[in-house]
Design brief:
With 203 residues, the chain is mostly helical. It has 8 helices and no strands.
Length: 203
């Protein structure tokens, strides 16, 4: 995995996805259309798609013979792409109703690690006799440290960036989308730790 390329792809996809959500919500407000469907249906679907792009760049850490293209090939087999998209979308909806887990600092890692776990299971279920998708204690500890770091970085930077964007574009309420975007970028270390845990179980 090329870390620089992964970061560039992540930032590009996050900026495009967040920008498209901004555009959709603002267009809805201009025509006095309810924004609920954009904020709770369309934008979460876009976020899931961006998350899949990010995961596809990190997933090859597990196996040197696997590429990001292989990640998408695995998903396309037997309709698994649609299955994963539905799982992640409804997992996001479910987490939104759980006060503790609704925050992106927890919701996004859960969705990203769930994605990696499912794809790993689909890829290796028949070739490996026994493996664990649940992370070890050390892995959980590392992930927790990165999540705390991501929380503080996002909290400090999202307020500043959202104020600048709200002022520059004459809009309001961008902080949630900005926060989600920053959290998506900061998911890379969390995913790397979990991928390294799974890699140790390969024969």
């Amino acid at each position: 995995m090329n870390l620089l390329w992964t970061v560039l792809v992540t930032i590009t996809s996050v900026v495009l996805g967040t920008g498209f959500c901004f555009w959709l919500i603002q267009k809805a407000r201009e025509v006095d259309s309810p924004t609920w469907i954009f904020e709770h249906i369309l934008c979460p679907i876009i976020r899931v798609m961006v998350l899949l792009v990010v995961v596809s760049q990190v997933y090859p850490v597990i196996d040197a013979d696997t590429t990001s293209i292989d990640f998408w090939r695995i998903l396309m087999r037997q309709g698994q792409f649609n299955n994963l998209l539905n799982i992640l979308f409804f997992a996001g909806l479910l987490l939104a109703f759980m006060p503790v887990f609704s925050h992106p600092v927890l919701a996004l890692p859960i969705q990203s690690l769930l994605t990696i776990a499912l794809v790993f299971n689909w890829q290796h279920a028949e070739s490996i006799d026994s493996f664990s998708l649940f992370p070890s204690f050390v892995t959980i500890l590392k992930i927790t440290v990165y999540m705390v770091f991501a929380y503080f970085v996002t909290r400090e930077s999202s307020y500043y960036l959202s104020r600048r964007i709200d002022t520059a574009l004459a809009i309001s309420g961008s902080i949630r989308l900005i926060s989600d975007a920053i959290h998506l970028v900061l998911q890379i270390p969390v995913m790397l730790v979990y991928c390294s845990f799974l890699k140790l179980q390969l024969p």
